[in-house]
Specification:
single chain, 252 residues, Rossmann fold, 8-stranded mixed β-sheet, two-stranded antiparallel ribbon, 8 helices, binds S-adenosylmethionine, S-adenosyl-L-methionine, polyprenyldihydroxybenzoate methyltransferase activity, ubiquinone
Amino acid sequence: MGDGPVSDGVRVLPPNDLRQYDDLAGEWWRPDGAFAMLHWLARARAALVPPASRPDAVLVDLGCGAGLMAPHLAGKGYRHVGVDLTRSALEQAAAHGVTTLAGDATAVPLADGCADVVAAGEVLEHVPDWRAAVAEACRLLRPGGLLVLDTLNDTVLARLVAVELGERLPTVPRGIHDPRLFVDDRELVAECARHGVALRVRGVRPGLRATLGWLVRRNRGGAVREVTHDGPAIRPTWSTAVLYQGRGVRHG
Ligand SMILES: C[S@@+](CC[C@H](N)C(=O)[O-])C[C@H]1O[C@@H](n2cnc3c(N)ncnc32)[C@H](O)[C@@H]1O
């Protein structure tokens, strides 16, 4: 099982250790599994992406994981290119039609301006140098290209909700976050502006009633669907203090 202490047969790794994604590889596409909330967020992120405006349009998905956006982008006309450091996740992304590239979001081996859309879903808060990942995202965008992202804010409330509470729920794996890496929304907007992208952010959260219903159904061992196009909707909320989405166009 590799290094690290073992508790209940599971090795205990430091927060944000990427080997956690290998240990959890079987969870990615389980609708009610440890990555359930990533499915809900992927659907909401994909909803920010318009249909491609030209043939051969490319969407680069930074930190694509197992390619959970893929079903929600189907029919929009993009070649979906996924970049990630976790090979076990990339294998699953490829099986879902993503063109995969093993690489670091802070040094992507793709040409300047190659992307019509760059997506960075739930990845910036895992990258020690998130500014470098933002610089790469903006570099990859062609003029007029669209950046869509979601991440966790660098606030006490986000630490409480996403880590202290969230990681006790079955929707978020325990230890997957290092809150020291969370991303201040104003700093993110400023960094994007420095790289020519006018980012607008809004707070989002899962619908509370739907999430409670989902938890109850899950705990009762209710129906688990093979493909998770449903699950609680991610809704806009008034505060960016915990989870937020960003959307911005690169200047021409
Ligand atoms: C929380 S998952 C999100 C996956 C996917 N974006 C989604 O929303 O389903 C974070 C992903 O980022 C990847 N990751 C973390 N640091 C990375 C880096 N520096 N470069 C590329 N991928 C990275 C991990 O391997 C993991 O697949």
